Amino acid sequence: MRIGIYDPYLDDLGGGEKYMMTAAVCLSKKHNVSVFWDNQEDIEKLVKRFSFDFNGISFTKNIFSKKVGFLERLRATKKYDAIVLLSDGSIPFVMSKKLFIHLQQPLEKIGQSSTKDRLKLSRINAVFYNSEFTKSFNEKKIPGIKSLVIYPPVDLIEKNIKKENIILNVGRFRVINLKNNDYKKQQVMVDVFKKMIDKGLSKWRFVVAVSINDKEDPKFKEMTASAKGYPIEFLINKTNKDLWDVYNKARIYWHASGFGEDLEKHPEYAEHFGISTVEAMGSGAVPVVVNAGGQKEIIENGKDGFLWETLSELEERTKLLMGENSIWEKMSNHAKIKAKDFSKEKFCQEIEQLLVS
Questions:
Q1: Measured between alpha carbons, how far is 305 from 302 in angstroms, rounded to an integer?
Q2: Distance (Å, rounded) from C-alpha 329 to C-alpha 43?
């Protein structure tokens, strides 16, 4: 099959981009795969950040760019057996034999509001989601279209590194384009850890690993300044290899996206899946994460991690793991087993099955 893949956010270096490019690499083993993207520098950043091997993939003109005319796009897409597209809610007209849409988050602007929209949607063979959480908000807006969940692929790189007294959080630092100054709740977690230190906690560190762009740097500096004088370390724009070193050192993993938000009005503020949580589990770190969004699909509370509703619960369950090594050890082992449910091999099989079915 000749397959075209498009991710409009390929320069973002986020979880969605890892998802789509992993799909491209998987499919390139058996098919002729092209990715629609023009900027070579962005591709090099993807390789550096995620250690991708793109040797079997062709990067070609971005026919979905606004600079490309409608008729040119139609002619180009007609050459493909299938196009796989990460959508922000918009659906382009294409002439490929098959069209598959991937949705990564709850969206407001998708549905059948006009004849034109209905015509576009009629061309879709299937919509696939990164979690049941995402699916639950979008599926009802586009009834009648085949829909399924294909969980994100998670690289599990367990290393023989001695565990240290580290609480870890990994995520983008993101305030731009969101009506939220602490989207990933890094500041909330910094404040909780500071409070624990002020109460007498010692011999523990909080490591916050973030990817960040220049526009968000001033707000980030405010957070790092607030942590001054505490055993809090910030890792900035580290490679996948560097992150796996710290994953394997960490004993506990924190995640708080969605805490304190009205998730009925703004479900997009919750974690849509939680790749970093699974990565932490795969290294044996025990997750203590907010009971919201896709995290609830990953964690079996009390077995392979803890879910929490309040900051007091976050603190109490963290202290339990710190103080009871037998509990931590048992949950750590269960976490490593659970993480294997989200393997890259399983992801590749499901993507292949979707496109050839």
A1: 6
A2: 40
Digit-coded pLDDT (tens) for 191-236: 999 999 999 999 999 999 998 876 667 788 889 999 999 999 999 9
Q: Given a cut of 90, is residue 132 above it in pLDDT?
A: yes
Amino acid identity, residue 236? I
Which of helix, strand or coil describes residue 244? helix
Orientation angle between helical segments 311-323 and 325-339, nearest 10 degrees: 110
Element (H, E) at 232: strand 232-236
Measured distance CA(10)–CA(38) in Å, rounded: 10
Task: Give every CB contact of residue 294 below 8 A, 6+ residues apart in sequence.
Answer: 130, 131, 132, 133, 134, 270, 271, 272, 273, 274
- Residue 288 to residue 182: CA distance in whole angstroms: 19
Question: Distance between CA 166 and CA 158 in Å, rounded?
Answer: 16
pLDDT reported for residue 216 = 64
Q: Which two tokens stand for residue 7?
A: 């991710």
For residue 59, count other CB atoms closer than 10 A to its CB: 17
Separation between Cα atoms, residue 296 and residue 267, nearest integer Å: 14
Element (H, E) at 100: strand 98-103
